[in-house]
């Protein structure tokens, strides 16, 4: 059931149905997790189905912590009477009498003990094959609802991520025209320091200083990688599917390039713009943690 739709790792779904002479309720809750973690709390009557349920989930969900609760309530519990197997009760009475004759000091069986004896209470049970089919069908329906719930939230997250990436791209575009002026500002700054020190400007020395500072403060590589990562992240969001880990990696790379750009920047305008970029990247990383 895997699709190209971006999915969140959080969601909830529930289903109920009449199965095997009782009422079955299924609750599926999903939250964030690095991998797929399945937790089952199942009524003993359905414990034998756990391997099949696990397989069904793993075929359709890749990441998230899934809490699965299955409760069963017998329809007999809501009736005012119980169907009893009279033959079983008679046999219990005979055994009790025999034991009492052999051991006169023993206490007679109570009604409560007799009712809890295996086979005393008759239940309208379906064949195991029919019980399995009905339960798996209800579970499959509930799982489909959970997946759709995760996809609905995933669409909202997709819009948020694309909006953040678009804003980051706009800020990066504002930096690009400033880059050519950076070398001129460095030259002006060095010349000013020579003048303040009342030293004659040695053009060769000035050229060496410019090369040194240009190399130290060159942000072209970081700037270009920043643009590439933004485009790749936007492309992944548009394609959808299971993409949380890839987006998380790109968010880390965006954060690293932004930090380096900030450390190397000698232009106040670039620094101010980059601070806004860093804020948006942090918001991006928080949202990506919710994506499958």
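Q: What amino acid sequence fits the structure above?
A:
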């Amino acid at each position: 059931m895997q699709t190209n739709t971006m999915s969140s790792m959080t969601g909830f779904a529930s289903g109920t149905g009449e199965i095997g002479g009782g009422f079955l309720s299924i609750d599926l809750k999903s939250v964030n997790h690095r991998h797929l973690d399945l937790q089952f709390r199942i009524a003993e009557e359905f414990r034998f189905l756990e391997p099949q349920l696990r397989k069904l989930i793993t075929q359709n969900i890749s990441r998230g912590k899934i809490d699965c609760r299955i409760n069963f309530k017998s329809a007999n519990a809501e009736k005012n009477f119980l169907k009893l197997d009279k033959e079983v009760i008679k046999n219990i009475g005979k055994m009790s009498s025999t034991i009492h004759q052999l051991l006169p000091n023993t206490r007679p069986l109570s009604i409560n003990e007799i009712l809890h004896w295996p086979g005393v209470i008759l239940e309208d049970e379906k064949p195991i094959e029919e019980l399995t089919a009905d339960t798996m069908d209800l579970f499959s329906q509930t799982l489909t609802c959970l997946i759709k719930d995760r996809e609905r939230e995933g669409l909202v997250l997709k819009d948020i991520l694309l909006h953040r990436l678009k804003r980051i791209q706009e800020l990066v575009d504002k930096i690009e025209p400033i880059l050519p002026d950076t070398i001129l500002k460095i030259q002006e700054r060095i010349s000013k320091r020579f003048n303040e020190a009342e030293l004659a400007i040695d053009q060769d020395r000035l050229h060496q200083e410019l090369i040194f500072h240009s190399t130290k403060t060159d942000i072209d590589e970081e700037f270009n990688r920043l643009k590439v990562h933004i485009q790749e992240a936007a492309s992944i969001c548009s394609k959808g599917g299971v993409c949380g880990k890839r987006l998380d990696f790109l968010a880390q790379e965006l954060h690293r390039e932004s930090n380096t750009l900030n450390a190397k920047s000698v232009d106040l305008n670039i620094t101010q713009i980059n601070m806004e970029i860093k804020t948006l990247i942090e918001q991006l990383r928080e949202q990506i943690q919710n994506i499958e």
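Q: And what stands out in the fold?
A: The mean pLDDT is 83.
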